[in-house]
Design a protein that fits this description.
single chain; mainly alpha; globular
């Protein structure tokens, strides 16, 4: 039997792709519901993978240290299991200790900022009314505020507001419960992934080599590269966030800006989130400083812009290096797609996955160009 010609295969592939696009367009709502349901099912798994990769960073160091410490102990086959369990426990305790330290550092200053904001609201309102009367007299802001209070601050208006907000509050409660459930499931799953990581890798390799040897030759190198990308990306993000937070603290201390420990910690923590983390940290921090001194908030924003430029051009390339190898456009697309399907965990997954896809396509194009020239 003659094999189909390349032209026939290309035409068949084009027809199949056109049929697929037509089917997706025809049943667009069903396709969206399917992907939404699939994302909800896989969200705890993706979150578990992200937690496992984060925890595995210090866990590898603990495994080496405990392995050397228990090298002379006659524990037999139980030594590896004991080392892994203790390393995982120490890694989770490390993250809990860091979290407790951050909360203990942030809470007093955050409470002070909120208290000061509540106390200053009447004064801010009075200044706003005076400013509007001086520069925008036609606005008549004071009268509008009084009309608003008379219209919406009555008992009937509050009852209507509560009745209208009840469904949204129920939806918010359900969403919060779902997030907590996903996190608990992901945390439990991450335990099993970390405890059995070597065993799971061996089993996956055995299954692929036994049932799909051709696929194994393609999948296993890609999985190894993806694992390397994840490890370098997450480790680089954490290291870069710590450096950025320390530099922010030093700069704010030199400039005598308020809330230096609170703001530098917030900037460092949000810097772990790619792209959007810098904006979140800047906006929240500037708002906190604004409550204390508007001029200090302006100085902080100028300082943070300079610091972000130094970080983006000097620190980030040296810390993260070429582990990602993506331009800003592809990083943004990876963040949008990954975050749209799986939220914040999807952002951390999307960037390394996009980086691997980009590298594979680039290498394949290079091979095709070389073959065409030859």
């Amino acid at each position: 039997m003659n094999k189909p010609s390349p032209a026939f295969r290309r035409a068949a592939a084009l027809i199949a792709f056109a049929a697929l696009c037509f089917g997706v367009a025809l049943y667009w709502q069903q396709v969206c519901r399917f992907f939404s349901s699939a994302a909800a099912v896989f969200r705890p798994i993706v979150l578990a993978a992200v937690i496992a990769f984060f925890v595995n960073l210090p866990m590898r160091l603990y495994e080496k240290w405990l392995g050397k410490l228990l090298a002379r102990a006659r524990l037999g086959q139980k030594k590896d299991t004991l080392v892994r369990a203790l390393s995982m426990l120490l890694s989770f305790l490390t993250f809990v200790a860091v979290l407790v330290f951050v909360v203990a550092l942030l809470y007093p200053q955050l409470r002070q900022s909120v208290t000061q904001l509540v106390r200053s609201l009447p004064e801010y309102g009075r200044r706003l009314i005076e400013w509007s009367q001086e520069y925008l007299p036609g606005l008549d802001l004071e009268t509008r505020i009084q009309e608003f209070i008379q219209k919406y601050m009555t008992m009937d208006a509050l009852q209507n507001l509560l009745s209208n907000a009840a469904p949204h509050l129920f939806s918010l409660t359900s969403s919060t419960a779902s997030v907590i459930t996903d996190f608990v499931l992901a945390l439990m799953l991450s335990f099993y992934l970390l405890l059995s990581k070597n065993k799971l890798v061996r089993q996956a390799k055995s299954v692929l080599n036994a049932y799909a040897p051709r696929l194994a030759r393609v999948v296993l190198p890609v999985a190894t590269r993806l694992n390397d990308k994840f490890r370098k990306f997450l480790g680089g993000q954490i290291t870069e966030a710590v450096i950025l937070g320390m530099l922010c603290f030093i700069g704010m201390t030199v400039l005598s800006l308020p809330y230096a420990p609170l703001v530098s910690t917030l900037v460092g923590v949000t810097a772990v989130i790619p792209i959007f983390g810098a904006y979140i940290g800047a906006i929240v921090s500037a708002f906190l400083i604004l409550m204390d001194n508007p001029l200090s908030a302006v100085i902080f924003l100028v300082f943070l812009v300079v610091l972000q430029q130094v970080e983006g051009n000097l620190i980030y390339p040296r810390v993260v290096g070429d582990s990602i190898g993506l331009s800003g456009l592809w990083v943004l697309l990876a963040v949008i797609v990954g975050g749209g399907f799986f939220g914040i965990p999807g952002i951390f997954v999307g960037i390394p996955v996009m980086s691997v896809i980009y590298d594979l396509v680039r290498e394949d194009l290079a091979r095709r160009r070389t073959a065409a020239k030859g």
